[in-house]
Amino acid sequence: MTQPGKRRNARGRPKAGGEAARARTADQHADAFRRTRRAHIEETAEDYAEAVAELIASRGEARVVDLAKMLGVTHVTVSRTVARLQARGLLTCEPYRAIFLTEEGRRVAERSRRRHEVVVAFLQSLGVSRAVAEADAEGLEHHVSGETLAAFERFLDRRRESF
Amino acid sequence: MTQPGKRRNARGRPKAGGEAARARTADQHADAFRRTRRAHIEETAEDYAEAVAELIASRGEARVVDLAKMLGVTHVTVSRTVARLQARGLLTCEPYRAIFLTEEGRRVAERSRRRHEVVVAFLQSLGVSRAVAEADAEGLEHHVSGETLAAFERFLDRRRESF
DNA sequence: CTCAAAGTGTAGCATAGAATACATTCAGTG
DNA sequence: CACTGAATGTATTCTATGCTACACTTTGAG
Q1: DSSP string covering B70-124
Q2: Which end of chain A is more exposed for a tag (fewer CB within 10 A), N or C?
Q3: Do B151 and A127 touch (CB under 8 A)?
């Protein structure tokens, strides 16, 4: 527990009763932000894994240019990121050759795909247009916890039952 | 079909119907990813504006250390980010003094706060626990489009009516 | 077999975000 | 009024993500 710092009150700051309670709140905030930051790091991995899986499914192989087009970045960015994800064990590739998913990469891709689908279906069930649902899901999906995803699925199930 | 990977047509653009459809899909993806990336850039601004507003409301002023505690980063990161946001016109501050919001900063903070509240209330109304709703909202709120936010509000309104 | 275009890779630069280590300022206390 | 500790600021380093420009590899036309 950090000391309230006498200087503060001395400097004419409002008392703001309950320093302890406020500190806990700040910590909760901090944790949430830290979690969000961690999620950001995972986003790239998930997006790439998902994109590679999709390309392999649709055209048999994933090439750097395809990924670049799909992700809206240059081939340089893709090239470097692929190297990093290879080091992380999600992808494999050799110079001038196609990109493949490792076992773990496939797992990440599959998990991402399912979550993406649930989020899109959920948003559409709320009346959001397909295009916007797809676009929003791209940003949202990486920040949906297991508990929230379960809530989305529960909602969808109930919807389905009532029709 | 393994490593070798045939080149697509070296000359002349492939024009198969499948290709066209695929390209459109890739573009849609690319747009969604670009939007998400843009949202990431805005996240920091929104988080800081919201945090400053909250600190001013709760203790009269926002200091670097408070922000650091709240956001879960060191004071160095806060210091540099504050400088950037000041350059962007969201905050004002002088060396060794408290941080204040500009008119625009207040607008950003207010918009963020509202969106945050709607998202949290919405998640809770789906049965998500308060703690998880708060944590998820931190990541989700920056990626919720106007259309989706409106859908959330509509849902909340209907819920309220039926009780 | 040759060779040019498509596809990949590399070099170098910029920004954002985060950290550690060290320097400076400020305000209350002795 | 000098001092000390908390609060801030600066220097430097690191990683992740982007980009442009330029070099290299592959492959299919011819």
Answers
A1: HHTS-HHHHHHHHHHHHHTTSEEE-TTS-EEE-HHHHHHHHHHHHHHHHHHHHHH
A2: C
A3: yes
